[in-house]
Amino acid sequence: MNWSTLDTWIVITGILSSMSCALIGNFLVLRKMSMMGDAISHAILPGLAVAFLVSGSRGSVTMFVGAAIAGLLTALFTQWIHKFGKVEESAAMGVTFTALFAIGLILIVRGADKVDLDPGCVLFGAIELVPLDMITLLQLSLPRAVWILGSVLLINLLFTLLLYKELRLTCFDPALATTLGINAHVMHYVTMTLVAITTVASFESVGSILVIAMLIVPASCAHLLTNRYGVMLAVSMIVAAASAVLGHISAITVPTWFGFADTNTAGMMAVISGLIFTGAMLFASHQGILSKVFHRFQLSLRIACEDILGKLYRMEETTSIQPTQQYAVVMPAGKWMHRLAHANLVRAGKVLYENNTYHLTDHGRWQAKKLVRSHRLWETYVAKHFDLELDHLHESAERIEHFISQPMQQAMIEELHHVQTDPHGQKIPDEPSDHNYNSDIHEGDT
Amino acid sequence: MNYDTSSTTRTSVPPDIAASTQRRVRVATGEEHPATSPLSVHDMTVAYHRKPVLWDVDFDAPAGSLIGMIGPNGAGKSTLLKAALDLMPKASGRVMIFGKPYRQQRHLVGYVPQRESVDWDFPVNALDVVCMGLYRQIGWCRLVSRRHKQRAMQALEQVGMADFAKRQISQLSGGQQQRVFLARALVQDAVLYLMDEPFAGVDASTEQAIVNILQTLRTAGKTTLVVHHDLHTVREYFDYVILLNMRIVAHGPTDEVFTPDNLRKTYGGHLTLLDQAAQAIAQQGET
């Protein structure tokens, strides 16, 4: 990997643009208006075209004014169409931005044909050309894009920090905000104007794909990872910066592994942010897919363990089953979950395997008693309150036995006047009193 | 610095309506609509997509009372609250808080929106939500201080939610969420409270907690207007009722106004509700 000052400028530009987009994108995600990023980033085109036609220059200031007005109009039109056309909000956005984008294209083709509009440039920008356009201000020579994006990031930072709690309230509960004297509509349109300004600033260097990606992906990612508002803003910016750095590094290294020349940085940045999002989705601590799968697995394992304990306990009650049959009863063939459960029980010292037979240890018997008690209490309770055939009781008890808590068992036994036997005539085990195993209950309860 | 910057009122109604409104106001600010009333609604009409949803709503809320607003679905109960709070445009009419326009009196009014009106997945905890009620007092561009957080904690204690202060709001039950909303209104320290269905979908213990808070507010001399659905509890909870079905059918002290006849006029046609009402009144008569 050959790193030069050019690469440094490219990465800095990428960081600045993706952080600006990510910061303001939080408010789109929180207001459930993610489509708005898509809409504004397209709809600023007529604003740029008109600004060019009116002023005859491609100067930054005119472009910003044009984009800001177009962005504001997009937000306004969307609201009007949504309200008066009785169309749902995302449809209203779709109508608005496609129409405005088309107008922009026509304006450019008809009126400003000489302006270079390369589809590739629009999609991916020209971040690689950033270091070629240096501007000296205050004796500081920096690329033009860095000046512009730095200012935009500063504006966005000031906006979010100064209006930290006002933004939080208008996003969460616009009605309350308005009754407190914070006009939620004004805040919304100011935010949309900033989205438009950020978009146009980033557009030139990183292109529309990355703008849309950076408005939405880091913020969504942060929303998955945290449930604190301030942390979400910070995490989204970290994700954005990481995508920029890793994106550029991957763009210049990954293709060479496969024998190709290096690839487009902006495209790779969007890919990396997508990968980071996928990671967040899988590993998010509270709502990640992996943690859900893990919890489900834990539950299945607990149920399998308890089922084995219950079967062994019932065998101890009736000694009619021969050791040779026992294995088939305790360990249904082909159930890998039961094998795992069995291994777990032996390791935990709840079950002993001796002379080709299984035995419950004291610890195992203690837990099994609780389970069988829960099972038989349930059967007795249901039999008392509902007129069901006796052979219909077992199936539901087999499932629910794992979930009846100790206080619930206590309430049941009192309601049943401390009955001793279940409807099948089997003894309901007493509440096992040994407290030595208490730590184990909590483990099992989760 | 205060969030309220406008001290003058702007009316954006057409000239002819404005003129007639002014005539009404001249009459209205006389004996008919006393300045002592925490909430006076004058001839308010609200339209949605040109279809009127509220016609000529006109009433004065008596100070220090606990007011129930009752009416069938689509009667415009929520709309009345929202239009009174300038959250929706009014086609005509005006709303006075202690004899002055609402815009000048915002700080006196606390609002509890419907629970479903916000996104409960929003990344804030219960304490953050309660603090939102203090934003006006904190002022623009300032951070929430420890002192403000302590006040929010007191409000959470008042509604029995102190243990859940740090809980993310999506992990609260419906009743708990409603209590958080109530605590947020309490910290506003308003004189008039407008609550949109605080009893909707809450458990029995939360309902009791809310009733206790409402009674505390009344004892403190505050006025509360509650959009309510359960006809069985009207007599028990409220000392003043407003029966609404696009127009005001009747309003007055519960004993005088909450009658089968008025309920029939309000709910006309909705037989099941009518039966429920008759049953409710019969039960109340027995006790």
Describe this structure in words.
The complex is a heterodimer of chains A (446) and B (287). Chain A has 446 residues and is mainly alpha-helical. Chain A folds into two domains: 5-284, ABC transporter involved in vitamin B12 uptake, BtuC, CATH 1.10.3470.10; 292-440, Winged helix-like DNA-binding domain superfamily/Winged helix DNA-binding domain (Arc Repressor Mutant, subunit A, Orthogonal Bundle). Helices cover 73% and strands 4% of the residues of chain A. Chain A contains 18 helices and four strands. Chain A has helices at 5-30, 35-55, 60-84, 89-111, 119-124, 144-162, 164-172, 174-179, 184-225, 229-257, 265-283, 289-317, 323-330, 336-347, 362-385, 393-400, 406-415, 438-445; strands at 134-137, 140-143, 351-354, 357-360. Chain A has a two-stranded antiparallel ribbon. A two-stranded antiparallel ribbon of chain A has the order 3-4. In chain A, helix 2 (35-55) packs across helix 9 (184-225). The longest helix of chain A is centred in the middle third of the chain and has 42 residues, at 184-225. Chain B has 287 residues and is α/β, with parallel strands linked by helices. The termini of chain B are far apart. Helix content of chain B is 40%, strand content 21%. In chain B, the strands form two sheets. Chain B has a six-stranded mixed beta sheet with strand order 6-7-8-3-9-10, with helices on both faces. In chain B, strands 2-1-4-5 form a four-stranded antiparallel beta sheet, sandwiched between helices. In chain B, a hairpin with a 1-residue loop joins strand 9 (240-245) and strand 10 (247-253). Chain B is globular. Chain B is built from twelve helices and ten strands. Chain B has helices spanning 15-32, 77-84, 102-105, 126-132, 135-138, 146-158, 174-187, 204-219, 234-237, 254-257, 260-267, 271-286, and strands spanning 39-48, 51-61, 66-70, 92-97, 100-101, 109-112, 192-195, 223-227, 240-245, 247-253.
